[in-house]
Amino acid sequence: MDLVNEILEREQQKADKYKPITVEKHLDVEFDIGTLVAFDTNDLDSKLMKSEKDRDSYLESLTRDNTQLLLNKIWELSTERIDEAIVVRLPQPTTVMPRAKPVPKPKPLTKWQEFAKAKGITKTKKSKLEWDEQLQKWVPLYGFKKAAAEKEKNWLIPVPQNLDPMTDMYEKKASEKSEKVAKNELQRLKNIARARKVKIPRVGIPITSDKASSTQLATATSVAKASTASLGKFQDKLPKEKDARGKGVHELIPGKERKRKLPVPTPAAEKENNLSIIDRILKKRPKIDMEKAVSKHIHEEQVQRSEEKRSMKPMKGKPKGKGNATNFSAKKPKGGRGQRNPNKKNPGRKRR
Amino acid sequence: MKILSEDRTRLLFEKLTKYIGVNVKLLIDRPDGTYCFREKKDRVYYISERLLQLAHTVKPDHLISAGTCFGKFTKTNKFRLHITALTYIAPYAPYKLWVKPSSEQQFLYGHHVIKSGLGRITENTPKNQGVVILTMSDIPIGFGVTSRSTTDCRHADPLATIAFHQADIGEYIRSEDTLV
């Protein structure tokens, strides 16, 4: 019996050591097993909380009870045994936890991505291998074995007729490729600069293409003209030359900083200025306008002629001297309708 | 409302002298107050100094127009006269062209003035001269540029163009949204 009592006593001691796993609560504790959280909505004992002595022990016991409840809840879940350890698969957490750090900003789009988004262009996935009809085998799109396949394929490149027959087509192809790579690299760097809002210096006038556009040429001439010590002040102008215009042209031309706003002069000064401009314009107009002078002359002539006609009309019925035979002249007879100038002296009868 | 640059002022006055000659001075030199030209969104406004001061109280973004729109500068930096300037141009124009009542409508629909529609024309009008076009009852209805001088007009055939259409009062309806 002693042995039994001893065992029982030991068990009793053990049981005293551990608190029971069941916990009584007024209100049920809420759990979020996914994040291993329990929310106790019961009121705290204000009397115990206020006493210096018991506060810590009270809080400790409360925490233990709630932890016990949480563990009870965990044990309710189906357990698995993996490598001698009992594990539980936690459900999805229901509590939304605030982030410690701000949400990372989306990566700024590259220029192409922006364009594609605006246009609704979506990327289509290309297969890594492509069947080559000429080589009769699968050739990778890029990378390992692509260069070898290219080399095998382009063992001979015909020179087009419009090119110099001595051009090295392989060299040409290589240079084209390296140019493409360089362009891509430049665009990549530009995208980075754009994303970081870094101001990059302008590259200037592109001279890559052999056929520059008229605007590019106009810019080039303007820049060249302004590139003197006096910023092109004393350079002559062609009769119909125009200054280059457009976005960013001003920045290229030395000494021509774009002025954001002109200073507003006083009304009197502005009036004075305007009048001087008008005077200059009016003075510039030629003194004699040839067109005007000619038309004026024609007009006068016409007036004179019509007046003459009017004055000649009553003469129509007048007898004509000695008649047709004597009135013989070199000109064709006009039947009294010809233009007659009274100021003109008649040189007399023409004899033949 | 910004002040016109010297270049643009010159372009504006050159265009105005084509229509009203030396009378441009009268637009600037007025006894009833100071008037000036201001620019907003490439459009040129003729505005009195007093009104301009009042217009300054409006936030630039909210101001659509103030004064009278005289025209606009095109993208190629040419000045184009709008019909809204007619009230200021018509009284000063030395060269005028009257159209017959039958072809008034044709002109108001944006067609050129042809010989058959020509009622009267100022004596000694040169070729390529800016003219104000009026009805026979002396109501100004638009601008044009002569394609023939007065003397040439006499001999022109009835379908020949006498004046090229520049602007007409029909634009108040036709291009209502782009005028100002």
TrEMBL record, chain A:
Region (Disordered), start-end ranges: 238-272, 285-352
Ion transport among keywords: no
Biased composition (Basic and acidic residues): 238-256, 287-311
Biased composition (Basic residues): 312-321, 331-352
GO BP of this protein: endonucleolytic cleavage in ITS1 to separate SSU-rRNA from 5.8S rRNA and LSU-rRNA from tricistronic rRNA transcript (SSU-rRNA, 5.8S rRNA, LSU-rRNA); ribosomal large subunit biogenesis
Keyword terms of this UniProt record: Nucleus, Ribosome biogenesis
Main location: nucleus
GO CC annotation terms, alphabetical: nucleolus; preribosome, large subunit precursor
Listed InterPro entries: Ribosom_reg
Subcellular location: Nucleus
One Pfam family named in its UniProt record: RRS1
Homology family: Belongs to the RRS1 family.
Function as written in the Swiss-Prot or TrEMBL entry: Involved in ribosomal large subunit assembly.
Protein name: Ribosome biogenesis regulatory protein
Automatic annotation (TrEMBL), chain B:
GO biological process: ribosome assembly
Main subcellular location of this protein, as a coarse class: nucleus
Cellular component per GO, a single term: nucleolus
Subcellular location: Nucleus, Nucleolus
A Pfam family matched in the record: pre-PUA_NIP7
Superkingdom of origin: Eukaryota
PUA domain ranges (all copies): 95-174
Record key words, sorted: Nucleus, Ribosome biogenesis, RNA-binding
SUPFAM superfamilies membership: Pre-PUA domain (SSF88802), PUA domain-like (SSF88697)
InterPro entries (alphabetical): NIP7_N, Nip7_N_euk, PUA, PUA-like_sf, PUA_sf, Ribosomal_synth_fac_NIP7, UPF0113_PUA
Molecular function as annotated in GO: RNA binding
Record text on subunit structure and interactions: Interacts with pre-ribosome complex.
PANTHER family referenced in this protein's UniProt entry, alphabetically: CYCLIN-DEPENDENT KINASES REGULATORY SUBUNIT/60S RIBOSOME SUBUNIT BIOGENESIS PROTEIN NIP7
Family per record: Belongs to the NIP7 family.
General function of this protein: Required for proper 34S pre-rRNA processing and 60S ribosome subunit assembly.
Protein name stated in the entry: 60S ribosome subunit biogenesis protein NIP7 homolog
